[in-house]
């Protein structure tokens, strides 16, 4: 026991001697006398020129070092400058293996970093280029590896680390890329923290100014919070967070913008949990609020909480951010936008429930989901009513004229056409979307009870249902897009039932030339990923029927009467013909062949006439080429010159409809004088047949009378009459 006591006393004695030696050395040795040697060693071992202009001080209790006015240059350019560095550690805390930093102070740091035209940073030239060292041969692996340490033998107690005070002030770092001209500066960087102890919270204040030249941008930041970390360094917390960032520069059009962040955060790395409490983030007048808990940091996190964006004006936000204003037909739209939802769902899926989106006087409600494994999106959203025309840019004559001037002329080269859809993105989509809207006004059309069901899987996108009510009728459509190849396939089917064409065309294009309940059946297939390809590859049919309709801006009866009057060699006396032509059950089929629509079976029933027609529509040139015939089947008008005689009955009065239907639809159709020659031939043939019948009847009558007279002479009056009646049957009368 005495030996152990003597050893312990010896150790303590040695420790006391060592402490005493250090204390004496600190008290006696002046480090400033060694500044030339220190500068020389740095210059010999590096490419730096070290200048120790200020004093060097050190202390024993607390054990510390102080440097003042230090500068290092590289190739005659300042690399680093330091006004003051103070680092003090409690000596007795080192002895007890519980290190505590009394003070760490860094003041006036100025670092200049640069990259030359070749992409080489100046910091890489600090060390001189040495000779290549020969590679040493790796020693042979030992035959036997060390025995594994018993479980738990390598563990140690958590480090009890304490810092009394940390202060960084007036720090500056400048970086420049001479190849691109890009530069940024971090300056006025200040950090203050005190009483930093693991297991409890401590205050932290940070401020800085950051600026770039490409683009010109500047931000002044001030951050204050309380930070905490446990002794195992696997649990962290931020509370009382308040951060303010004042920004300006080119991204904001020269405007000054403030962003603010507040709230608290807790994270546990061992349990893989994180919580945001009372978190708010604002940019100008846009404010986001959330309370969120995350369980699991891997591929399948589970989220629970809420998220909302306070009502804000999008137009005011853009103005505050220095962005171009959005011009709308209605200047009062986009001034009330809001968003709110609850967040939940199973692990690996983010579900938004009680989702509400407000846009001015329109509200959308529903739910949404996002699957992290396959990026699958689910959306069920129902809205009440929206007038989309209010959000369109206002039309002006200047814009219309400019668009006409920019339109390619006939001899000019066509504008380069791009792909319509990103096929790679479509192939990765997983969608289940159900959208509904009570009323939509778009292009001046009013559509009600809109329903849309969209799915996407493995490169096939389907609009399973797109339907609604439109002008006393209804419509429904289905679309399939197969994007699994680089030449996607489209299949389009649609049905329209009893949609009133007059108000629809009037609201859509201010065209009031056709009325009636439209019934359509569309079946079209095409391929391609550009508009021109979709048009040229289109194949299909459009069956149409218009019941109890009317041509409101053309009088086909007048055109027919013009032809009949010419046939009768008379002039029409009626001057008030009106401007419309009613019809019943106009129907036909349009064969789609690329940009051309062909129709060979157009028919319609008119008063005293049957409309028959065939022709083509060139969608690329907006050109209509139709030959219509008005077949006379009965009396069509009270004008005497338009009377239907046996010569004109069942003849066809020709009408032609030709021209650009995008310019003047009402002026496309007129009486076809060139084809009327064929009609005159038919009328002449009918007249010749009529005259031939008259001559035959006259000859029959004369022959009958002659035979009858002779029989009367031979048989007597009474018998002659009986024979005459028999002869009428013989001559076909």
TrEMBL record:
Please indicate which superkingdom the organism of origin belongs to. Bacteria
Comp. bias intervals (Acidic residues) = 129-150
Q: Where is this region: Disordered?
A: 118-161, 396-419, 694-719
The family database entries (Pfam families) matched by this protein are listed as: AsmA
**What InterPro entries would the database entry show?**
AsmA (IPR007844), AsmA-related (IPR052894)
Domain spans labelled AsmA:
1-601
Give residue spans, biased composition: Polar residues.
Answer: 152-161
Q: Write down what this protein is called.
A: AsmA protein
Q: What is the lineage of its organism?
A: Bacteria, Pseudomonadati, Pseudomonadota, Gammaproteobacteria, Pseudomonadales
